[in-house]
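Example 9 (inverse folding). The structure is encoded as follows.
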């Protein structure tokens, strides 16, 4: 029996699952809360729980694979280490392209002379003296990104600069040509900067996982899920953490297909913070041809074509201004009141009970503030420091954490930096009130929703007569927003203009409600929906009914990410280019510089041999022994006066296979 251990570390939960690879069956599954800033606690609790459930010994585990949303969340929230960019052969004006300047923020940039042309020939020598002098001002950065003009045609200047930076600073260095072979220097630089920023975060995650595996006596190989759903080695993930963006959603797609057997469907994964939706066609997730987009940034990383919505079980419930007191969920995530009360019951129940005695409780009566720092940060202003000082003894009521109006922006900045977490009413609390969930403190949830129900709306009436009525309205709102998100994703897949507007159009609203009077309108989804996430089975039946489609809600859907982490394959790409060097000349661009050939077939053969060696060696390093090799060729030619003229060709060799299972 080959036992595989899958781990998924998300923003709220860390999941673990044990899978019998020979029987294709789930042996055990477990969840624990993700622990920040020390991730080892949540990982260890999930792994220990799943082993205890199974009754298996640690040496029975043959392979471990890890997926995560931490890289995605960090980029969306603007978190990560302070880095520097070495920009070789570029002008300062080019920082404005591809959102590069915005991504850098206040991080330093060194503009260094050098770079190559489209042919791979050097256009200016690398100014090593300027680079060495500039590095003196970069003390304290956690990593360096290097991007040189046309480095994909000739990476020599990036490679030489990397050696100088490593020798002088001793920090991780990311070269843009190692992340993508596509042209577009500023976009490659953006991808390299984000990669450098994530190295510390992903290294801590992998280190925490490895440490617990070692402590438990699990000696199996550790793999990490890439953003396209493929598996890579832990060492490669440390070097290229940018490739793990959308790792969690990609794993969930693989898990959805394994659990349901569906070939064509919309997969919707509801977590604590977001709902991620992807199209499954022919049993495979659609890959974004433009590169993964995370937050505002479009990278050069291949990943699943995922549409992410700020809607989850921990989304903040807000009351809209107006006469009818409408509700909206998200996009901000807060800690559910029922979860905070589980660990800090005296604080939460005391505050809610005191507020309940008031005729009209203040809006902030159901809000609490929790500190999230490991070490007290030093780079805060006096107002931020005052808030941190109050929170140092533990969570507080909002009114106790913020004692003046001028401190409200300070609290917002601390939340933005991830140093402070807010707690408030969420769909998870509503589900506890209605008995759909029972993991946390349902009594605290009922008290909080009863307080919100007493709020006066624009008409002067109460928001709701009681907690149960308000809870049903929250769940109805979750159904509506989830349906809108699925329709928006569907319209986008079909190429319609303004998919968000169409999904929420009054005619579409009438269609999904099967309007029939003088006019009859019917609308819905033509594909089934696979609902994933711990709460999907509670919510998605109503979503399927609203959209008139089949819903597949697998029993193990709550740990689909962890399942997908271990059912995937290692997929390694090696890519290179042949360009025209003039009549009868063909230039092959290799990692050690361009080479010239007089015959096109010889040039293609040389590139094919080099790429095959690269792909095979990378796959073997990831533990693949029985691999399949595939070649794809993108050929560009032009017809000029009845003659075909070669322009360039991009060749990709792909090696794929299952990683070797020990034991």
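The amino acid assigned to each position is listed next.
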């Amino acid at each position: 029996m080959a036992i595989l251990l899958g781990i998924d570390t998300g923003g709220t939960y860390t999941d673990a699952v044990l899978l019998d690879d020979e029987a294709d069956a789930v042996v055990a599954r477990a969840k624990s809360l993700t622990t920040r800033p020390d991730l080892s606690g949540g990982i260890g609790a999930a792994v220990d729980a799943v082993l205890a459930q199974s009754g298996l010994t640690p040496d029975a585990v043959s392979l471990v694979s890890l997926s995560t949303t931490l890289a995605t969340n960090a980029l969306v929230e603007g978190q990560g280490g302070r880095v520097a960019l070495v920009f070789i052969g570029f002008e300062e004006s080019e920082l404005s392209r591809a959102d590069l300047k915005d991504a850098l923020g206040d991080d330093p940039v060194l503009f260094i002379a050098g770079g190559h042309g489209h042919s791979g020939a050097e256009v200016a020598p690398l100014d090593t003296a300027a680079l060495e002098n500039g590095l003196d001002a970069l003390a304290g950065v956690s990593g360096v990104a290097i991007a040189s003009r046309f480095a994909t045609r000739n990476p020599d200047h990036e490679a030489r600069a990397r050696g100088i930076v490593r020798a002088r600073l001793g920090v991780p260095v990311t070269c843009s040509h190692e992340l993508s072979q596509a042209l577009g220097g500023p976009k490659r630089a953006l991808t390299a900067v984000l990669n450098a920023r994530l190295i510390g975060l992903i290294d801590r995650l992998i280190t925490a996982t490895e440490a617990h595996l070692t402590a438990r006596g699990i000696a199996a190989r550790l793999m990490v899920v890439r953003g396209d759903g493929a598996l890579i080695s832990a060492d490669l993930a440390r070097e290229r953490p940018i490739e793990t963006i959308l790792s969690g959603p990609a794993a969930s797609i693989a898990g959805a297909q394994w659990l349901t057997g569906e070939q064509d469907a919309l997969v919707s994964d509801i977590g604590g913070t977001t709902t991620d939706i992807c199209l499954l066609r022919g049993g495979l997730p659609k890959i974004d041809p433009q590169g993964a987009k995370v937050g505002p940034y479009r990278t050069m990383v291949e990943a699943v074509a995922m549409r992410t919505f700020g809607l989850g079980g921990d989304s903040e419930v807000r009351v809209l201004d107006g006469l009818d007191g409408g509700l909206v969920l998200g996009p901000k995530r807060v800690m559910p009141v029922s979860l905070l009360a589980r660990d800090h019951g005296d604080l939460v129940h005391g505050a809610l009970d005191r507020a309940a005695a008031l005729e009209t409780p203040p809006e902030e009566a159901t809000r609490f503030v929790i500190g999230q720092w490991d070490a007290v940060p030093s780079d805060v202003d006096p107002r931020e420091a005052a808030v941190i000082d109050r929170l140092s003894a533990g969570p507080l009521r909002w009114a106790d954490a913020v004692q003046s109006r001028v401190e409200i922006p300070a609290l917002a900045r601390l939340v933005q930096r991830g140093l402070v977490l807010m707690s408030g009413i969420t769909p998870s609390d509503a589900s506890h009130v209605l008995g759909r969930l029972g993991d946390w403190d349902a009594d605290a949830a009922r008290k909080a929703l009863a307080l919100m129900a007493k709020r006066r709306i624009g008409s002067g009436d109460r928001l709701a007569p009681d907690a149960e009525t308000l809870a049903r309205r929250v769940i109805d709102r979750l159904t509506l927003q989830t349906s809108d998100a699925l329709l928006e994703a569907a319209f986008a897949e079909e190429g319609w203009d303004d998919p968000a507007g169409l999904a929420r159009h009054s005619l579409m609203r009438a269609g999904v409600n099967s309007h029939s009077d003088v006019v009859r309108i019917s609308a819905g989804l033509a594909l089934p929906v696979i609902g994933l996430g711990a709460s999907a089975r509670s919510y998605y039946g109503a979503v399927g009914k609203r959209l008139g489609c089949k819903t597949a809600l697998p029993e193990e859907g709550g740990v689909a990410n962890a399942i997908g982490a271990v059912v995937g394959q290692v997929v390694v790409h090696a890519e290179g280019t042949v360009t025209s060097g003039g009549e009868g000349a063909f230039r092959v661009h290799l990692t050690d510089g361009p080479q010239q050939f007089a015959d096109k077939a010889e040039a293609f053969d040389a590139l094919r041999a080099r790429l095959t060696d690269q792909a095979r060696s990378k796959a073997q390093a990831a533990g693949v022994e029985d691999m399949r090799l595939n070649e794809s060729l993108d050929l560009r030619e032009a017809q000029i006066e009845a003659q075909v003229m070669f322009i360039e060709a991009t060749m990709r060799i792909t090696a794929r296979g299952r990683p070797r299972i020990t034991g």
